[in-house]
Amino acid sequence: MAARSVCRAGSAAGRALLWGPRPSAALLNLTRKRGAASYAQTLQNIPETQVTTLENGLRVASEESHQPTCTVGVFIEAGSRYEDAKTNGAGFFLEHMAFKGTKKRPGSAFEKEVESLGAHLNGYTSREQTAFYIKAFSKDMPKVVELLSDLVQNCALEDSQIEKERGVILQELKEMDSNLTDVTFDYLHATAYQGTALAHTVEGTTENIKRLNRADLASYVDTHFKAPRMVLAAAGGISHRELVDAAKQHFTGASFAYKAKGSVPDLPRCRFTGSEIRARDDALPLAHIALAVEGPGWADPDNVVLNVANAIIGRYDRTFGGGKNQSSRLAALAVEHKLCHRFEPFNTSYSDTGLFGFHFVSDPLSIDDMMFCAQGEWMRLCTSATESEVTRAKNYLRNAMVAQLDGTTRVCENIGSHLLHYGRRIPLEEWDARISAVDAKMVRDVCSKYIYDKCPAIAAVGPIEQLLDYNRIRSSMYWIRL
């Protein structure tokens, strides 16, 4: 993920403005009473997401609120999964180039125009999605839509800028190699989806970045930046009608003039493989281990249950407080026996598949013990998850769910991603109902479906001599029960 601008808030004066004077006890009590009844009301009072599909296939979606700012973004169904071995990295390269001027606004004129609005411009590329978004004053929404349309339709792709950005990306790739967590997850994709498009990294290979040229980038835009594969999403103090009018006015280029049949390439199929990649380097101080089984795709209802299961497992870092009193059994074991420096479960979904697993960082001599305890926790979820821990996990998910309402940018990203992944914006009230329906039996059944006696994919980096043979790890994916 590459950011083009960063907003920071800090300093003692800033904190004083944010915190203000300490409120009175009466005011605190009133706030608590009002907040205690606000969860259900919040879910019911969230503004409806309005969606309009234009004649060219572009979906325009917005959620209106009474705020002085708005975030508008273009979300595109394109990423490294749509690239082949020769073009891998084109989407990431194009993301860099998108901020380097358009045919209408060459050079730094684009960035200066964004800055003149006091706006915040950002973007990212993933395996299945590319996004560009701008946060600005609500009154500037029509101008923001025009800027975004210019960015995705008229990227300049000047040869001089391509060569300049090529060096920047190559330097980024070197820096990414030092982030062992990212390296481990790239290896995990490479072994789990070997021989398929999901095995590609988002950033591409060094050889590809050195070789990609203007024709390759222009071809990527012409192939993937089509109206039916895009969502124009907005959140904040904006009018849906005005947003639609702005979209009709500006998203009218050659790629958006009509809904061309056959213009959208099929999604490459990717098959999960139980296998492993080991990159041993005894010079490194810590080992990074990731283990995953195949999970469901975005739209599968089992995702909610698996997220509850991950909330039961919890996450841990040595900087956390609580010691052995943490609610997560695995975290308590990690503290008591000094098993690892940190661990976290993950449930990474794609259109038709996913990776459900855990990642941990440990000292070389603790790998075996940590793997044993983590796999034991998986088996316990399959056989003996309890109602009390499911209740705790559901409350954790509800808290994470309402955090999505924090700010127009998160809401905008939520809208755009939902329309690409599910074809609609799923209301938080519906998510809450799905979470509430989960019980301990569902957790045991769904975990057994995806975890029990399944062949995992494993990626390991660093001093990993103590990591057991793959067959030994595979044998711990079930319990012999009498």
From TrEMBL:
InterPro entries: Metalloenz_LuxS/M16, MPP/UQCRC_Complex, Pept_M16_N, Peptidase_M16_C. It is found in: Mitochondrion inner membrane. Component of the ubiquinol-cytochrome c oxidoreductase (cytochrome b-c1 complex, complex III, CIII), a multisubunit enzyme composed of 11 subunits. The complex is composed of 3 respiratory subunits cytochrome b, cytochrome c1 and Rieske protein UQCRFS1, 2 core protein subunits UQCRC1/QCR1 and UQCRC2/QCR2, and 6 low-molecular weight protein subunits UQCRH/QCR6, UQCRB/QCR7, UQCRQ/QCR8, UQCR10/QCR9, UQCR11/QCR10 and subunit 9, the cleavage product of Rieske protein UQCRFS1. The gene is Uqcrc1. Gene3D superfamilies: Metalloenzyme, LuxS/M16 peptidase-like. This is Cytochrome b-c1 complex subunit 1, mitochondrial. It is a peripheral membrane protein. Belongs to the peptidase M16 family. UQCRC1/QCR1 subfamily. SUPFAM superfamilies: LuxS/MPP-like metallohydrolase. The keyword Phosphoprotein applies. Keywords: Acetylation, Electron transport, Membrane, Mitochondrion, Mitochondrion inner membrane, Phosphoprotein, Respiratory chain, Transit peptide, Transport. GO terms for cellular component: mitochondrial inner membrane; protein-containing complex. Residues 212-396 form the Peptidase M16 C-terminal domain. It comes from Tychaedon coryphoeus (Karoo scrub-robin). Signal peptide: none annotated. It holds the Pfam family Peptidase_M16. Residues 59-205 form the Peptidase M16 N-terminal domain. The keyword Acetylation applies.
